[in-house]
Amino acid sequence: MPPRTAVFFHAHPDDEALLTAGTMAMLAAEGHRVVLVVATAGERGLAEIGPGEELRETRLKELYESAALLGCARVECLGYGDSGLSPKGGIAEERPDNAFIDADTEAAARALAAILEEEKADLLSIYDPAGGYGHPDHVQVHRVGKRAAQIAGTEIVLEATVNRDPLVRLLRLAGRVYKFPPEFDVRTFESAYSANDAITHRVNVRRYTRQKRASMAAHASQATGGDSDRTLAVVLKVPGPLYRLVFGTEWYVRRDLPPGTRLTHPFDRWPK
C-alpha cells in the first residue's frame, strides 16, 4: 500500500489516547503520514497541576508528547475554547466566549478543511453523531469534521467510536466488584457510542498497545483532580495482558458503506 495521509480530529488533548492512539501508531509504523488536530486545548478539564502552571499550556505540552509517542508528523490546535460539561451532562451554562460548541460550524469546518487540503488528506477521523458519550465538544467535532470533509473532498471519513455492546456487559460485570462513583450510571452507556452492527471497521492494534498506553500516560494532568477516580487513572492501572485484550481493538463507522461491512484497516477498500 503506498503511503497515505490520515488526519485525526479530536475535541481535547487525551481524546486521541483513549479512542484512536493504536490506529495512529499503526499507520505511522506502516509509513503513512499521521496528523493530529484538536479543536481546543482542554483548558477546562479537571487537573492538579503545580503552582504557576497554566492548564492550557500543560495540556498542549502533553498533547505534543503523546503525538510524538504515536509517530505523528504534525499537530495542530484550532484554538477554540473548551466548552466544558455541565454537572448533569450536556452544555455548560458558563463557558468561554470562544467555546467550540458556540463556534460557527462553517467557519470551523473551513479551518479544518484548510489543513485537509494542505495535507492532501486521504482520510479524516471524527466522532459519531452523538459524540460518543455526548460531550458537547465531541458532538461539534462530528458536525465540523463532516462538513470539512465535504469542503476538502476527503474521500474516507471514519467515525471513531466504541462497540457499546461488550462495553455495557463489561461495566455491569465490573459493577459487581467495584463501586462506581455516584454520578456514574452504567445505563447512560446503553445509548452511547455505536452498536455492534453499525461498526464497519474493527482495527486490531494489540501490537501497538504499548504506544497507546504511553500516549495515555503522557496526559498526566488528566489522571488527577476531581472527587472521584479519573478514567485515565483507572485505565492505566489495568495489568498489561488485560490492557491488550480490552484496548487492543479500535472501532470506526464509515457511513457510506453498507450495514454489515467488516473491515480491519482504515484504508481497506469495499468491496475488497
TrEMBL record:
It comes from the Bacteria. The keyword Zinc applies. This is PIG-L deacetylase family protein. Its EC number is 3.5.1.-. One of its GO terms (molecular function) is hydrolase activity. It is an enzyme of class 3 (hydrolase). Keywords: Hydrolase, Zinc. Gene3D superfamilies: LmbE-like.
